[in-house]
Amino acid sequence: MISHILFIHTRENSVEVKHPSEMRFICLTLLIISGATDSRSAVGRPPVITVDGFDRSGGLHLQCESEGWYPEPDLEWLDSEGVRLSSETTETHRNTDRFSVKHTIIVYHSGKIHCRVKLKEHMLETLINTTSSMFNLWKTAAILFSVIVVISGFAGILLTVFLHTYRGVI
Known about the structure:
This protein is α+β, with helices and mostly antiparallel strands. Helices cover 20% and strands 48% of the residues.
């Protein structure tokens, strides 16, 4: 059975939560807080990465969101080497005195993708590890569909030629 594992780490403790999922990936959430805190600032919830499926070109749609921040935090996507990735869409909402942020990205390769939310000296990060089998499944389906279309077209041409040639004989 494929599972989704979420680890939440703080300096004092560690909690592991497991639940089933449709795709194989691992999420790792890190909470890093250092230095003095501003009494007006609020650290929000850990970011949550949602897998929204594939697009027509085989890209995996990922959405990351976090809420409960004050003031408005920065959300960024990073690849496995820490290089910043550009988001496809970005949304920020203010609910009374707190902010929520949501960014989406399309990934075309397997590997680790980080969603990081930062506010001053506070940082929450979630990691998703996409497997190559996720992308291979889409590619296999596209190739199989293409082969079926070509064979169906070829069979249609043969049937048309056969009927046209033997129309008077039958």
